């Protein structure tokens, strides 16, 4: 396997997709936040873990006139980069995959990622962009997922999730790590935070 190419500079107007780097002007109509695979304790009964079903959803997006999407499932929440690459190749839907981590409530107590310090998170997120997303998320980073051509499936955007009216210590580490990894790799950042519509509790005084 050849060494990964460096991520394109912003001046090159390139986007890192699960099937390789592409000019940004080829993205067309983009769905900026979707999930093809996701498993979270906050979303019990809403697991997305079926490649065939996700392929049908991706094909439906293409028929609706969507050319590209951001797969917004970050580390440790059931992401499946190799399957995403297969879906992208089969449907023609361009997919940019995130790295990073979600807000703390999406991880069960004792999840390994909650114990990672900022340096560990930074190294992991930057490696997802440069070397490829792991085939399987675990504390011991394994081999990268590979796409249909055998090339590693790399992240092209970094995600941080924060809570509603508060940022936990873990989330602060994630924010710092995402900022550092973005500085190292040159990829963009998205921040996900809940809104009033998704939270029943009022703002604390």
Secondary-structure blueprint of this entry?
Layout: E1 14-17, E2 20-23, E3 30-34, H1 51-63, E4 68-71, H2 81-91, E5 94-101, H3 118-130, E6 157-161, H4 169-185, E7 189-192
Parallel strand pairs: 3-4, 4-5, 5-6, 6-7
Antiparallel strand pairs: 1-2
Helix pairs in contact: 1-2, 3-4
State the secondary-structure class.
alpha/beta
**Which stretches are low in confidence, meaning pLDDT under 50 for 5 or more residues running?**
1-11, 199-205
| Sequence of strands across the biggest β-sheet | 3-4-5-6-7
Mean pLDDT metric: 90
Helical content (DSSP H or I, runs of 4+): 25-40%
- Put simply, the count of helices is 4
- Count of beta strands: 7
Tell me, what's the shape? globular
Overall radius of gyration: 16 Å
Report how far apart the termini are: 56 Å
- Beta content comes to 15-25%
Largest sheet: 5 strands, parallel
Outline the structure in words.
With 205 residues, the protein is an alpha/beta fold. It has four helices and seven strands. It has helices at 51-63, 81-91, 118-130, 169-185, and strands spanning 14-17, 20-23, 30-34, 68-71, 94-101, 157-161, 189-192. Helix 1 (51-63) runs parallel beside helix 2 and helix 3 (118-130) runs parallel beside helix 4 (169-185).
